[in-house]
Amino acid sequence: MDQNPKITRSAEKAEMLLAGDITASTSTELRAALKNLVGDGVRELVVDLSNVRVVDSSGIGLLVAAHNSLSRLGGQVSVINASNDLIELFKAFRLDKHFSIARKE
């Protein structure tokens, strides 16, 4: 599956559509993309997980890092289209206390 995120941007808001698993093998590229977005002025990031089945500890770290970076700048991260399994994982790590997480519709 294509690992390159598809990014749609308007002003300070960006939506990142991810595909495949978010694991140690893909998080380096995703981290660079996120860093570029924040550096370019994005303050609201929507991460679409509709095509993601697995997120490992590196992927969790990536979302936390994005949240921390944007929070420091007054911004926010939200996750949309997460599967029930991913929502349960995020809740286990208490990520739902830091940013909004929405189920697949």
Summarize the structure in short:
By secondary structure, the protein is α/β, with parallel strands linked by helices. The chain has a single domain (6-103), classed as 2-Layer Sandwich (Transcription Regulator spoIIAA), CATH 3.30.750.
Can you describe this structure?
This protein is α/β, with parallel strands linked by helices. It has a single domain, classed as Transcription Regulator spoIIAA (2-Layer Sandwich). 39% of the residues lie in helices and 30% in strands. It starts with 5 loop residues before the first strand and ends with a strand. The mean pLDDT is 92.
Layout of strands and helices, then pairs:
Elements: E1 6-10, E2 13-19, H1 24-39, E3 44-51, H2 57-72, E4 76-82, H3 84-92, E5 100-103
Parallel strand pairs: 2-3, 3-4, 4-5
Antiparallel strand pairs: 1-2
